[in-house]
Amino acid sequence: MASFPQETTFWVLCANSYDVVFNTYSGSVMITGPNGATQTVNIAFSVSAAMVGNLNVSAPSVSLSTTQGSGPTSLQLTASNQGGGSIAFTARASVGTPQGGNWLQVSPMSGTVTPTSSASLMVTATPGTLPAGTYSGTIVVTSVSGVNYFFGLTTTISPDRAASRNNVTGS
Predict the structure, then answer these.
(1) pTM to 2 decimal places
(2) Closest Cα to residue 104, out of 76, 74, 132, 84?
């Protein structure tokens, strides 16, 4: 075996996997030192398919309860990537009852997740002046590849007991 100086030298070898079929490849690199000595280094690498991204959206609950006239109430959804690469997504809220209502929102309305970085989506119900009752809506989270997650959401608004007591009249 040839001897080389004890200096440390780093070499970077790059392989272009573009247009290469999935397989294991091997080869060798011959290094010639300044004194003419040579050394052969065997190299092997594999080319495989990249992991495809897989959007997953989870929710601990899909119902909210609040009191008539109170402030907003929220729940959190978590979008994650159970595959590889990055996945862009959009999120939207639609109200089922009352039709045309705007009491349901989701934020942010878009984002990107990777295998190491999830995204929190805040779903907020704002009862405002809605009367007591049960309301429905849907949260839809869609990946750029067309995968949809639908969350049917129910919000129950209870009567404001304090307001009810203040409106009692006697005869």
Answers:
(1) 0.66
(2) 74
